[in-house]
Amino acid sequence: MDLRLLRYFIAVFEEQNITRAAQRSHVSQPSISSAIKQLEEMLGVSLFIRSKQGVVITDEAHHLYPRAKRLIEQAHSIEGLFKGNDEERHITLGVFPDLSPKRLADVLETMRQQIPGLTPRLVDVNADCDIRITVDILRNQGETWVPLWEEDYVLCMRPDHELANQEFVLPEELHQFDFIECPPCEAHQQTIGLLACAELRMNIVASGEHKSQVMHLVQAGYGISFLPDGVLETAYDLVTVPLKAPRMFKRVGFTYSADKTTSDVVSKVVATFMR
Q1: Cystine design at 20: which of 1, 8, 15, 209 (Cβ 3.0–4.6 Å)?
Q2: What is the C-alpha end-to-end distance of the chain, expressed in Å?
Q3: CATH number of the domain bearing residue 113
């Protein structure tokens, strides 16, 4: 018996609503529905009758509920039998590069304050982990998304650049300026495309795979670029100027797969930022 199915069953039983049960379990609604269907097929009974108002609990569900609760409680006691509380609070976080250092630190501090004894381990965003802290466009299919913060893209340059003293910059003013590109960056491609539509272009003189690499090239005087304001928090030697154009920004948040919610510590971390 997959305990995850019983946990989802308990959530639906207590909430009497699949949407609320999904929110409580920090998974998608289809994941809850699929789990209930799987459990019903396994037991050979109907546990809930779906309606527009929620679900109607069947006699079979009433019969199963107290037994499911006892099984989950027993599983928790077994998990903690040979390990202390500190070990249960370990969590591995895969962190995307080039995020705001301050806002990332704020998230980690909130976790420390709200979950006593938590022991986080930070790894590369592509490594095996419990939760990823990444940008929304890199969320994998089927993963749950919990927003944390947003970072606006700004035009950055050295103080001696001729655009550095302007209050703002119009897109057409970028024509023929030396520009440092980050090829994977959606904001960079939008800007280049915006200029191309007006038959304008910038001179691509250098490129970097990561935003921090682009920042170093700007600091070295190769040209100007667009970077998230979070990356530039410690770049005191650069000047930022707003671009008078549609807002360009990136969303940062947690992503995790449904199977990770069986961990109490993952559920606690996610719940902390869903309030």
Answers
A1: 15
A2: 32
A3: 3.40.190.10
